Amino acid sequence: MSSSGICYLVGAGPGDLGLVTLRAKECIELADVLVYDALANQELLNWTKPGCEKINAGKRAKDHVLTQDETNELIVEKTRAGKSVVRLKGGDPMIFGRGGEEAAELAAAGVPFEIVPGISSTIGGPCYAGIPVTHRDHNTQLTIFTGHEDPTKGFSSIDFAQLAKAPGTKVFVMGVSRLREISGEFVKHGADPDTPIALTRWATTNAQKTIVGTLTTIADIAEAEKFGSPAVAVIGTVVNERKKINWFEKRPLFGKRIVVTRTREQAGGLSKSLRDLGADVIELPTIRIEHPEDRLTFAEMVTHAHEYDWLIFTSPNGAERFFNAFFATFEDARSLGNPRIAAIGTGTANKIREYRIGVDLIPEKFVAEGLIDAFKKENVENLTMLWVRAEETREIVGDGLTKLGAIVDECIAYRTVPETEDPTGAKARLAEQGADLITFTSGSTVDHFFALGLEWPEDCVAGSIGPVTSETLRKHGQPPAFEAHPHDIPGFTAAIVRYFKKQKH
Fold it and tell me: What is the structure's pLDDT at 150?
């Protein structure tokens, strides 16, 4: 990006993170300033670099944090200051996103800018609802309009007489609050009262909801369902195709709101698995990983790792910290020597293998006690072992190996501290919307969640990755509804699917 300052008008897509373009992601990652709208997926804020200034411009219905004029002035000012500015807008910036106005302001100010298109909710939303906006059995024309204007105000730039007579599919956004008036105008100007219409709320996200009716019934249906904005509406016989190709809303976890409490860096894997299965995921990290208090001792122990008979890893975090430190010192993996390597479970083993290092021992049970049981089958008497662990880890591994006759040194690789930042407003969302399940992947995530003082959501259950986590939940008076077997992320994901499947029967 230009060091002299440039503004990127970026389309954030309709909501699904997977629909954000590669160019948009690149811009967000390099931005000095991010000015975002309410309808842009807030998880995109996690892609920003440290120090990025994040400014909420609001812009949802009548609730504006900044007026349009204030937003225009802001992006011009920040760009003139030599910043790389990203103006992040839901959907596509040039389709009812006022991107054209903002581009004109930037051009008038004489500052560089670039427009990055995004997938519009007018196209992406119906697609995720199983409605093709074009289909040769139904139409050869597509009309897109905004429902933002009040059709009963006496004057409108929208010609409903022409819209009602126009062939093909009509799509509109920003019209839920005026749905009765809009559908009435269509019928008034000659449209068939039985024309199908569908509304999809929070399209392409796992909070998506779709209602279907006709021009004469849809307003009553929307009121009965308390159906609010943001929503995209489709008018036309293409709506009937939804019965055959509604794919997104049929996934096993669709409609379930699930909280992920892992660290921000680790949440992605579990969150993606759950989103792929249809869940509405709230990432609420309760902990973050920091360097150990004694970084010098940690570095020295890593440097001498080749002197040990065994290296013991009891978490992916420990493995990552260890090998990052190792390769910061040594260029050649052969400098590690020939120690055998043990990992407490498949998650830890997979992290080690990312560094092209093999694993010699994985216990059947992915807990400290299981690791000790596995070592009972080995002859470890008088063997030297380096146990790479967190500052707060239980002493079971060290004590157990010592009792077996091993000579154990403890290598403190990291410490767990409370997560204090909440850039996406996850706490407020949990408080307002509730959840069906809160997931916990360690005892520390449990302790730090309850330390937040948040009220436990009504009709919400806890899910645990393993026995230690389950025991910690019980200590807090919240026994888990289920426990993963095996105690890793794939096992946890499978356990979540099984749990909700049972709830349906």
Answer: 57
The 10s digit of each residue's pLDDT in 389-420 is: 988 777 889 999 999 999 999 999 998 888 88
Beta bridge partners of 20: none
Q: Fill in the amino acid letter for 310.
A: W
The one-letter amino acid code at 150 reads D
Does the pLDDT of residue 122 top 80, yes or no? yes
What's the rounded Cα separation, in Å, for the pair 120 and 444? Answer: 41
Question: Same CATH fold, 123-248 and 6-118?
Answer: no
Contact 289, 265 (CB under 8 A): yes
Contact 286, 418 (CB under 8 A): yes
End-to-end CA distance of the chain: give it in Å, rounded. Answer: 54
CATH label, 290-417, candidates 3.40.50.10860, 3.40.1170.10, 1.10.530.10, 3.40.50.10090? 3.40.50.10090
In order, the DSSP letters of 94-146 are TSSS-HHHHHHHHHHHT--EEEE----HHHHHHHHTT--S-BTTTBS-EEEEE
Instruction: Write out the CATH class of domain 6-118.
Output: alpha beta
- On the question of pLDDT at 2 being above 60, the answer is no
Query: What is the CATH topology of the domain spanning 257-286+419-504?
Result: Rossmann fold (3.40.50)
Percent of the chain as helix, strand, coil, to the nearest 5: 40, 20, 40
Read off the pLDDT of each residue in 22-33 and give the average, rounded to a whole number: 97
- Confidence category of residue 207, pLDDT binned at 50, 70, 90: confident
Cβ-proximal residues to 80 (8 Å cutoff; 6+ apart), any chain? 5, 109, 111
Q: Say which residue, 243 or 346, is predicted with more confidence.
A: 243
Flag whether the pTM goes above 0.85: no
Per-domain residue ranges for the chain?
6-118, 123-248, 257-286+419-504, 290-417
Q: Looking at the predicted structure, is the pLDDT value of residue 367 above 90?
A: no
Q: Which amino acid is at 10?
A: V
Average pLDDT, the chain: 91
For the annotated catalytic residues, the residue numbers are: 37, 59, 174
Q: Which residues, in sequence order, are bridge partners of residue 13? A: 91
Provide the residue type at 58 as one letter.
G
3-state secondary structure of 71: helix
- Three-point CA angle 433, 438, 440, nearest 5°: 155
Quick one: pLDDT at residue 423? 73
Overall fold of domain 123-248: 3.30.950
